[in-house]
Amino acid sequence: MARQNWSRDETLAAFNLYCRTPFGRLHARNPDIIRLADALGRTSGAVAMKCCNLASLDPSQQARGIAGLRKASRLDEEIWSEFNQDAERIGYQSEVAFAGLTQTKLRESDAVEWEDIQGLEKHVVTKVRVNQHLFRSIILTGYRFECAVCRLPISSLLVAAHIVPWSADKSQRMNPRNGICLCSLHDKAFDAGILSIAPDFHILIDEGIAQRHSKNQTVERFLLNYSGRTICLPDRWHPDPGLLRLHLQRPESTVGFAL
Questions:
Q1: 25-53: per-residue pLDDT in tens?
Q2: Most buried one in 74, 135, 140, 161, CB count within 10 A?
Q3: pTM of the entire structure?
Q4: CA-CA distance, 188 to 208, in Å (whole number)?
Q5: Count of CB atoms within 10 A of residue 182's CB?
C-alpha cells in the first residue's frame, strides 16, 4: 500500500487522541487507537506512531527524556504551535475532526460553566461545552486521574481546576498549563486561597487556618498534612509557574502561608 500523507483533519484527530490518552497507552493495541485507525483506513501502528511523533513536541515529555520518534512533520509542528497560541480554537477543531472522521457525536460537558449562556447562539454554547469536556479530559489524563495534592483516584470527585480563573482571563481557560487536577475538597480550598501552590510546585496552607485549627484532626489530615509537600506533576503540560504566581497574588491569597 502506498504511503499516504496525513491531512490536517487526520492530524488534528490524532492530536486530539494524544491529548486525552495516557502516554503509556499510545500503542497499537489500544482500542481507541485501533478505532481511529480503522476510521482513517490506516494501521493502528501508523496511528500510534503519529501520536508518538506528536509526543516528541511535548516539552514535558522531553524533560522526562521521552522524545517520541523524532519524526514529527511540519504539519504536526504547526498544529502544536497553533494549540499553544489558541487552545480553544485548535481544541475545538480537533474534536470536530475526530468526530467527523470517526462518525461519532461531539463530546460535550453536561453543563456550561465557562460562559453566561443567556443570549448566546447555539453553536457558541456547543463550542464551550465541547472545549470544557476536552479540557477536563486533558487535565485528568495528564494527572493520571489523581488529585495533584492527595492522589485521590476517583474520577467523579476530581475537578479540572483553573489556576487563573476562567472568569478572570478567558484567554487562559483552555490552556492546559493553566489547569490542575484536584479533588473536590482541594479544589474548593485552592479557589478560596486556603491552599495554594508555589511556582516551584510546593503546597502552601494559609497560616491563619493552620493556627486556628492546629489541633483539629480533620484539618490536620486533609490540609495541614500536605503543607510543604510537592504536588504530583502531570505527564504533560506542567503548571505554568507564572500563572501559579498570579494565583498567589489574588486577594484571597494575600495572607501568609505555612510551610
A1: 999 999 999 999 999 999 999 999 999 88
A2: 135
A3: 0.89
A4: 17
A5: 28
